[in-house]
Each structure stands twice: as C-alpha cells, then as structure tokens.
Amino acid sequence: MKTILYSSILLMLTLFTGNQAQAQHNSKHNYVVLTKKVPQLQPILITAERLKEEDGAHFGEFEIIICGKEIGDITDSSKMGKFITKAEKLGVKLVACGFSLNKFKVDKEAVPKEMKVVENGILYNFQLQKKGYLSLSL
C-alpha cells in the first residue's frame, strides 16, 4: 500500500513539475522601458538587440515609452530618425505618452507615424507589467 501511495505522489510531482518546466520553456520574454530622454534610446535599443540575441525564440515584445518634459524631442527627425530605423529593424515598439504631449503642448500630428501614442504612459507601463512584462524606468 505504501508503495502505491509513494508511486502516486511521485507520479503527480513529476507531471506537475514537467508541466511547469514546459510552460516556462515555451514562454516569451516581454520587456518595457520607460524613459524621459530621447538620447537614452541608443543604449535601450542596444539592450533590446542583445536580449533578442540572448533570448532567441523566447524573445517576445519590447516597448519603449517616452514621457516627460523632453517629449517634444520625438518630433525632431534629426534626433529620432536613426532610432526609429533601428527600432523597426529590431521589432521594438516606440510609444509616446499622450499625457506628456498634452502637458508640454506638443502637436500630436508632429509625432512620427511609426510611434504609437497612448493616453497615459505611466498607466500603460503598469498595464504591461500586469501582463508579465519586465519593466525598467530611466
């Protein structure tokens, strides 16, 4: 009787840990970075590139949210052009905080078409974290 009980427990543990390991093995790694300065896009994009190489097939989404008083810099194509090109190449999504655009009176029409605008960048960051994204704020 003890043998059947121990065998059953061992079998259940094996199945449970096997399913858990499989779930972790198949999961994607998603990242979000909140930044206040356009020049910080350079090291963030380098990080995205390295993580994409490191994660391989497990690399999921990578989003960069730009907020704060320097949000107007995203409308300057001389500052943003190379970052937009690299982000597109890597599959990284660039996101502008609508709250910051409004507060600092930046024309939403001047935001590059490649960028997504969300109503509130900080709220959007928290929503992504609730979905399991790893988050960093600079």
UniProtKB/TrEMBL annotation:
Keywords tagged on the record: Signal
The UniProt record lists the keyword Signal: yes
Signal peptide: 1-23
Protein name: Sulfur reduction protein DsrE
Organism: Christiangramia crocea
